[in-house]
Design goal:
The protein is of the alpha+beta class and 398 residues long. It is built from 3 helices and 22 strands. Strands 16-17-18-22-1-21 form a 6-stranded mixed beta sheet. Strands 2-11-14-13-12-15 form a 6-stranded antiparallel β-barrel. The protein has a 4-stranded antiparallel beta sheet with strand order 3-10-8-5, with no helix packed on it. β16 and β17 form a beta hairpin. The longest helix has 50 residues.
Length: 398
């Protein structure tokens, strides 16, 4: 593989490096006993490009605690950094007005219940009077048929029957009205009781108070945040991915995550494995990007808001790659040791994308050459070497 522009820059740097130290140590290196090193053959392999997207660490659940009613704040029982459990009291509001309203609603409901009992008694009495009127009407009708009752007595019996039926209908209507009033009163009492419960703000889930935004004496109102709480447990990375890369991001993809400042849970390359859990269906019209959420292992304890980078797998292409441990860096200069005729030769290279295990070489190496997998600290340009074994071929399985 030849890259003229890259090789010109590398050759200039190589000349400088050689002038500074290569010739000075060459005689000593030739006289030194051969070092045992592991060589890795360089070969092309199909590897996916790494698509990088920046985002921040976030909790799986996050909530801004606010009031549903307008009321003065009596007490705030937590501060930033406090851990809470589901149902713990966080903020209490002035409940005097709400409590009085609840008491009135309960009294109204109780009065409606008594009125319902009275209406049922009136209905029972009306039904009993109707039964008596029916029996009397039947008796008078029979007597009238035998000419034993007068027309006036029959008319009085019919009027009495009609009056009793009207009273039953009136009692039924009154009962239904009182029953409706009772239902309304009970609903009002339930609303008042529910509203009273709004004067005590509780933790919606187990978590950590990350921000306290108010103090006792302030006025709480709907939509005004009082506290910020984040759930305990696993963290996630929320990133914005360019619309053009949508085809390379899928749910349940395993991706690499690098956390700004490092993480004790990362591997030697500073990489943590995450899993894509959510993709936003809509693309932001202004930024032409969509939101992606990546779940992190439970052991990751990075603070929320920390910057992180997520690396997605892009289109696959042929690359020349070497083990990451084979690359040596001195400032902005990168180099490898190439094994040639029993000697280790320093070769400046230009590198590209890297993973935790290997790195792409853009210029300075050709396929078929062998590089020292992990150069010993005392290995110099021109040092005699013996091969103690061959490492795995790079690029495989990328």
């Amino acid at each position: 593989m030849k890259h003229p522009s890259g090789l010109i820059a590398l050759s200039v740097a190589a000349g400088v490096l050689s002038a500074c130290g290569g010739s000075e140590h060459a005689p000593a290196a030739q006289a030194r006993a051969p070092m045992a090193v592991t060589a890795v053959p360089v070969a092309y392999a199909d590897a996916a490009e790494r698509l990088e997207a920046g985002g921040v660490i976030a909790a799986q659940e996050s909530a801004l605690v606010s009031s549903r009613i307008v009321s003065s704040i009596v007490d705030v029982r937590v501060r930033a950094g406090d851990r809470v459990h589901t149902g713990d009291v966080l903020v209490t509001l002035d409940a005097r007005d709400v409590t009085e309203h609840t008491r009135q609603a309960s009294a109204t409901a109780l009065a409606a219940e008594k009125a319902l009992a009275q209406a049922r008694a009136a209905q029972t009495a009306a039904e009993a009077e109707q039964r008596l009127a029916v029996a009397w009407h039947r008796r008078i009708t029979a007597l009238h048929a035998r000419n034993s009752a007068t027309e006036q007595e029959r008319d009085e019996a019919e009027a009495r029957l009609a009056t009793a039926a009207a009273r039953v209908a009136g009692a039924q209507a009154a009962l239904e009205m009182v029953d409706a009033n009772l239902a309304s009163a009970r609903a009002a009492a339930e609303v008042a009781t529910t509203t009273q419960s709004y004067t005590t703000l509780r933790a919606p889930f187990d978590g950590l108070i990350t921000e306290r935004l108010t103090d006792p004496g302030n006025l709480a109102s709907p939509g005004l945040p009082l506290l910020r709480i984040e759930s305990s447990g696993a963290r996630q990375v929320v990133v914005r991915v360019d619309e053009a890369r949508a085809a390379y991001v899928h749910p349940r993809d395993h991706v690499e995550v690098s956390i700004d400042g490092g993480s004790p849970q990362a591997d030697a390359g500073g990489i943590i494995e995450g899993v894509v859990t959510e993709l936003a269906r809509a693309v932001d019209a202004d930024q032409r990007a969509f939101t992606v959420k990546v779940a992190l292992p439970l052991i990751v304890t990075a603070r929320t808001g920390t910057f992180a980078r997520v690396f997605f797998r892009g289109v696959s292409r042929r690359q020349l790659r070497v083990p990451a441990a084979a690359i040596q860096r001195r400032g902005h200069v990168t180099s490898v040791f190439v094994v040639q005729e029993g000697l280790a030769r320093l070769r400046l290279v230009q590198v590209g994308t890297a993973t935790s295990t290997d790195i792409e070489v853009l210029a300075g190496l050709d396929a078929g050459e062998s590089v020292v997998a992990s150069p010993p600290p005392l290995l110099l340009d021109g040092s005699p070497v013996t091969l103690s074994g061959s490492g795995p071929r790079t690029g495989a399985g990328q």
